Amino acid sequence: KQWYQRRVRGGGSSVKKAVCPVTIEGLMIEGALFDGHCLVECQRDSPSSSAIAHCTIAWVASRDVKKQTGEVTIPLYYSSEREKQVTAISVPCNGSPDHWKLKSVALVLKNQ
């Protein structure tokens, strides 16, 4: 069997073709903002974390996923303390994925 990837809506047609996509509400993002389509830079007056209205994720067979430019895999942590990583999710982005990794962008389930 092949490994699977989790992908956020907007990360290509693979989520649309998934057998069982799931929409999640209440996630928080740290280190960047998500405009509904891709990651965007925080502004000087942006809060340290902000809510994502909703996102659709799906398990997608890695053989069905074409590596896309403009996409970065970021961790999803249980809490803002970042002690327990739940999974990693591929998210659409502008620019180099390394740019977003250096900013320590992460998704959080529980904001403390």
Short description:
By secondary structure, the protein is mainly beta. The protein is built from one helix and ten strands; from the N terminus they run βββββββββαβ. The longest helix is centred in the C-terminal third of the chain and has 6 residues, at 97-102.
Would you kindly provide a written description of the structure presented here, covering whatever features stand out?
β4 (33-34) and β5 (39-40) form a beta hairpin. It is globular, with a radius of gyration of 13 Å. It has one helix at 97-102; strands at residues 4-8, 22-24, 28-30, 33-34, 39-40, 49-51, 55-61, 71-79, 85-92, 106-110. The protein starts with a strand and ends with a strand. The protein is 5% helix and 42% strand.
Characteristics:
1 helix, about 40% strand
Helix content: under 10%
What is the number of strand segments?
A: 10
The overall average pLDDT, rounded, is 80
Radius of gyration: 13 Å
Topology diagram in text:
Blueprint: E1 4-8, E2 22-24, E3 28-30, E4 33-34, E5 39-40, E6 49-51, E7 55-61, E8 71-79, E9 85-92, H1 97-102, E10 106-110
Parallel strand pairs: 8-10
Antiparallel strand pairs: 1-7, 2-7, 3-6, 3-10, 4-5, 8-9
